[in-house]
Amino acid sequence: MILSRVKISSLLIVVFLIISYLVAQQSKLFKTADFAVFDRQSRYLAAQLEVDDDIVVIAIDDHSLKQMNTVAGRWVWPRTVHGQVIEALQPFALSAIVFDILFAEQDIYRPDADTYFNEVLANSTGIYFATLEQNLVAGGGILLKDLPKELGLIKTPLANEIAKGNFILPLAINRQYWQLGSINFNASFDGVGRSYDVYRNLSGWHLPSLPAKLISALALPLPERPRILLQWRGAAEQPYPTLSYVDVYRAVINNEQAFLQQLSGKIVLIGATASGLYDVRSTPLSDNLPGVYILATAIDNLKNEQYLIPLSDLSQAVIGVIVITLTCAVFILVSGYVRQVGYTLLLMATISLILTKISTELLMQQQLLFVGAILLVMLISFLTFSFFYGYLEYRRRQQALAMFGRFLDPQVVYKLLEEGALSPEKLNKKQTLTVLFSDIRNFTQLAENSDAEDVVKLLNQYFNQQVAIIFQHEGTLDKFIGDCVMAFWGAPRQSEVAQDAVAAINAALAMEQELLRFRQSLPAGLKSFDIGIGIHTGECIVGMIGADLRLDYTVIGDTVNLASRIEGLTKNNARILVSEQTKKLTSHAFDFSYQGEHQVKGRQSKVQLYQPRRRDK
Questions:
Q1: Quick one: what percent of the chain has pLDDT higher than 70?
Q2: What is the DSSP letter of 87?
Q3: Residues 571 and 562: beta-carbon distance below 8 Å
Q4: Which residue, 158, 330, 306, 325, is CA-closest to 234?
């Protein structure tokens, strides 16, 4: 099978699109598309996914900052406040108290508060604190091997002995009470956090994250990967059960055991949600989610093993290649630009719905299939082929208009193009047509008695009017033969044979009326200007006929010859004559006067001719 140049070009474009997608699969453009769809799905699903009720947030919110001002002063509060809360909650056997606060400096103005805080820690269990890894600056940092062992760095066989690190450590807390983990925010290139550390790999030294430190202490399994993709859960603004810090503190001061009892056995996170403390981050759940809720999500995911597991890049690549191939196959296999675009849009909508549905269901099952890049490359494939085939369609239309605009009304050409009626297999055929010849009578004498310029001007005026009438009656202009006009009905625009014959006669009658009007504008010497019109209906061969350098859309056959002979018989009979075949097809629409039998050249039998008239209303 020999492929056309268009199909070969199309296949090359498909290969180019596939290679480009595979190479650029991890590019920012495609990852942005992946993240856009994933974030939308995450927000949709989060509201349907229940959070772990054993995780409770004690929020240092705007209400607490205002109400605590009279008790503890402005933020930062003395650590006595936190000590009182920890001490009061010890009888309720909390699973853990996790501070999303950096106790980075000792309180030099209130040293007694730090002393009390550490005394409380000495008599408490399950208290966890945060540390933060900072970027190294030139010449800065401390050798990791020299950092306090209480930091919890794990040395692996790949550990670099001279590696350095820079950390914000809880220096206000005595080292023996350190149970530390990192709380670094992991943002993608777009500034949105979608993952959380299990551990941070520092040149072969592993620093557990705060959620991982807690989960490990609870003797629960941890994934062996350094980072997890979070499955977001709960409401966008306040995903986890939350108590205002000031309400908890008042319950502690007032010894409200019933209020504090609700925290029994819980994992309690203490962190800032107040707008003035600026501890908010951009996440799929919210553009301004307090960090303590990100920490709670990570703990929830690890505790219940609900983090997302991404499918392999190979799976996404295979799906992307299939989608590109299907999108492009429609353009290659379907004919007609409008159908190509329509079917492809329908296919794209179907694929988009299916992929979105599948990926959403997979997210419910904690499996992540990024589909944004797949949908984007499908759109790119559609646009590429739309432009390519659109250009081909434009060029085809221009070529068809240049060729068929000589024979048909341009609007008819465009309509036939949309219907696919101008394809070679539909143009060349044998069928029944109605053929019309219109000739100027005594043209030779007229030409000899007039200037050449006047004759050409006269012919152009006449032909313009007659061609307009032919087009108006949906006929096809075949050619000009000197002073003769040839037209036919039934191709390439098809209708019923009788309807074509009626249109031809209507055109002839209109041409006659236009002739009479045209003669009124001529000089006295040309008042005798007249025409004869012959019409016959019969089987013809129609198609693109000619040489390689010049093709015309024309008809040939005995029907054409007879129509020409009938026109020649109009000189001594009537201005318009039609054959008996045409008369039978149109007798329901016109009246006819019989003009006798006539012998025509090339035929043994005589031909019966009729003059048509519009039927009186």
A1: 93
A2: H
A3: no
A4: 306
Please enumerate in sequence order all residues whose Cβ is within 8 A of that of 308, keeping only pairs 6 or more positions apart, or say none: 228, 229, 230, 231, 363, 366, 367, 368
Of all residues in the chain, the percent with pLDDT exceeding 90 is: 68
Mean pLDDT in residue range 10-31: 92
Contact 94, 265 (CB under 8 A): yes
Contact residues for 440 (Cβ-Cβ < 8 A; gap 6+): 446, 462, 483, 484, 529, 530, 531
Phi, psi of 262 (to 5 degrees): -65, -15
* Tokens matching residue 220: 């629960």
Distance, in Å, from the CA atom of 205 to the CA atom of 597, rounded to the nearest integer, reads 113
Across the strands, what pairs with 209?
182
Return the CATH class of domain 407-614.
alpha beta
Strands 127-134 and 180-182: parallel
| Residue pair 463/391 in contact by the 8 Å Cβ criterion | no
Report the half-sphere exposure of 477 (CA within 13 A, side-chain side): 25
Residue 40 CB partners (closer than 8 Å, separation 6+): none
CA-derived radius of gyration, the chain: 45
Per-residue pLDDT reduced to its tens digit, 363-416: 999 999 999 999 999 999 999 999 999 888 888 777 766 666 555 556 656 666
Average pLDDT estimate for 299-311? 95
Task: Give pLDDT tens digits for 333-349.
Answer: 888 888 899 999 999 99
- pLDDT for 296 equals 97
Contacts of 359 (CB under 8 A, 6+ apart): 37, 41, 368, 369, 370, 371
| Residues counted in the chain | 617
Q: What is the pLDDT of residues 540-571, one digit of tens each?
A: 988 777 666 666 778 888 999 999 999 989 98
Dump pLDDT digits (tens) for 428-460: 778 899 999 999 887 766 666 677 787 788 888
Q: What is the Cα–Cα distance from 261 to 125, expressed in whole angstroms?
A: 18
Start-to-end CA span in the chain (Å): 61
Residues in contact with 425: Cβ distance below 8 Å, sequence separation at least 6, in sequence order: none
Of 511, 520, 502, 512, residue with least CA distance to 469: 511
Where does residue 30 rank: exposed (0-12), middle (13-18), buried (19+ CB within 10 A)? buried
Question: In the chain, which residues fall in CATH 3.30.70.1230?
Answer: 407-614
The alpha helices in 135-255, defined as continuous H runs, are 210-217, 245-253
One-character DSSP codes across 405-417: TTTS-HHHHHHHH
CA atoms of 272 and 90, how far apart (whole Å): 22
- Name beta bridge partners: 433: 538
- pTM, 2 dp: 0.73
pLDDT digits (tens, 9 = 90+) for 173-214: 999 999 999 999 999 999 999 999 999 999 999 999 999 999
Query: Which residues does residue 99 pair with via DSSP β-bridges, in sequence order?
Result: 270
